[in-house]
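Subject: Sanity check before I submit

Could someone independently write out the structure tokens for this chain? I want to compare against mine line by line before I put it in a report. The sequence has 195 residues.
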Amino acid sequence: MLIPFQKEKIKNAILFFAIEYRKKTKKNINQTRLYKFLAFLDFEIMEEYGELPLGLTYKAMDMGPVPIEIYEKKEEEYINNDLYIFQNKKDNYNTVEVIVKNKDLLDLDYFSDIEIEKMRNIIEIYTDKSIMTSQISDASHERIKAWKKRYKEERNGIISYDEDVFINISNKKEEDFTNAERRYAMLKAFEEIKK
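---
Independent answer below. Compare away.
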């Protein structure tokens, strides 16, 4: 699905989560936690509204959904840019954390009010010093139904927005669509017309 200003949205979502996590915990956010925050944003907005805020491609890995554009470093600009960098932390766990370079460059104008509210909600729920990264991974297993479906069928498989979020949408009658399914089908149809 075509996402207007996709690269800018992804970078600003990463910066937002890094800044807000640091404000609440006085620590840098690690990559695993960040990946779950991005997945919550993408999949929860998709399930509720039928739209994708970021449109990242996720693998159904053991620890939950992982955005491969960032994890596999295919888009180096997501890893190191003028907003933040991903840096190896010197610890026994090979932890990678996000270091904010310039928080003043955060631009939330790329996001809708619903997306901003969802990002703030994710921070509110999952940013606490007592919540371990493994607990957030467990929460992603429970809350992200698309991960659960894909992981069960194909461990490390690519999560499909078409097949894993709106299951059997192609076999449903339009009058049986949820509002989110209707919106998603409409956006896909517009995309097909543009081609």
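---
OP: Matches mine. For the report I'm noting this point. The chain is about 50% helix and 10% strand.
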